[in-house]
Amino acid sequence: MKRFTILRNTDKDKRGTFTKRVYRYLAARGAECFVSDDGNEITEDVDCVIVLGGDGTLLRAAKKVVDRQIPLLGINLGTLGYLAEVDRGGAEKAMDCLLNDRFSIEKRMMLQGTIIHNDEIIASDIALNDVVIVRQGHLRVVNFMNHVNDAYLNSYKADGIILSTATGSTGYSLSAGGPIVSPEAEIILMTAISPHTLNTRSIVFQRDDRITVEIGQGNVSGIAEANVSFDGGAYISVDAGDRVIVERSEKQTNIIKISDISFLEVLRKKMTGN
Fold it and tell me: Could you give the dihedral angle defined by the CA atoms of residues 198, 202, 205 and 209, in that order, rounded to the nearest 10 degrees?
């Protein structure tokens, strides 16, 4: 690899000190480098996007490059990251690996989410981590009616529901009590947020299953009952009777893996700090 775009999170590298460190290291070794703060300045023939930030920054970058299949390397400038494999101290070693083509690429499954209102599509987007439906208002509980491949599965009241990939299992789903899944697995994981029953558990579906979540009637009719977001992006309001359809996307995200450390080793280090 010889051509790079460095995409930085300006909140985590406000003065650009670390960005300059990465830029100078690559440039001194003959690489072409471009710096972007918003991901809108990624050149056509770039070999790799180096993402400086955390998992959220990498998720945003994934949407920017998914149609061009440009691989991403995340360098974590935050406190906890599962997607960004490299930390500050390992940046130079990682860049040496990129320059000398010593790396592998993992293809990560993505989700396609579609919101239906009155039988019309009002929004559609992709997600590397998850599609999240959450209640609107502090005291409102949402009734979710869930179907899989058009067959009724169950219904329950909860504060929200998370539909995630294996990659997203270490994100919001984990915080809601969902299981950790090896990121290379191709599955769809459903996890309820604060369900109002004692027997609601996460469910793992096959990659080709099609999940439909219908928003049930809440305490107040005629107003938006919930919000939907894709990978933590802007909320989209949905009403009672609206449906959110989630299925495997035809698109994938290419994540560069530098080390030979297994996911289990990464998981142990993240969870224990050792």
Answer: 70
CA distance 83 to 97: 18
The tokens for 206 are: 């096959």
Sort strands 151-158 and 142-148 into parallel, antiparallel or unpaired: antiparallel
**Token couple for 1:** 């690899």
Query: What Å distances lie between residue 108 and 58, 207, 239, CA to CA?
Result: 13, 12, 32
Please report, in angstroms and rounded to a whole number, the separation of the first and last CA atoms in the chain: 32
d(CA 98, CA 225): 47
- The parts of the chain modelled with pLDDT lower than 70 are 39, 80, 138-139, 218-224, 260-262, 270, 273-274
Per the prediction, the chain carries an average pLDDT of 90
Residues identified as active-site: 55
What are the DSSP E strand ranges found in the chain? 3-8, 32-36, 48-53, 72-76, 86-87, 104-117, 120-127, 130-135, 142-148, 151-158, 160-164, 187-193, 203-206, 211-215, 224-230, 236-239, 243-257
Q: What is the pLDDT of residue 273?
A: 65
pTM: 0.91
CA distances from 61 to 2, 17, 68, 82 (A): 20, 20, 12, 15
DSSP secondary structure, 32-70, as one string: EEEEESSSTT--TT-SEEEEEE-HHHHHHHHHHHGGGT-
Joined tokens for residue 116: 């239906």
- Rounded CA-CA distance 199/185 in Å is 26
CA distances from 22 to 8, 18, 91 (A): 11, 6, 8
Radius of gyration of the chain (CA): 20
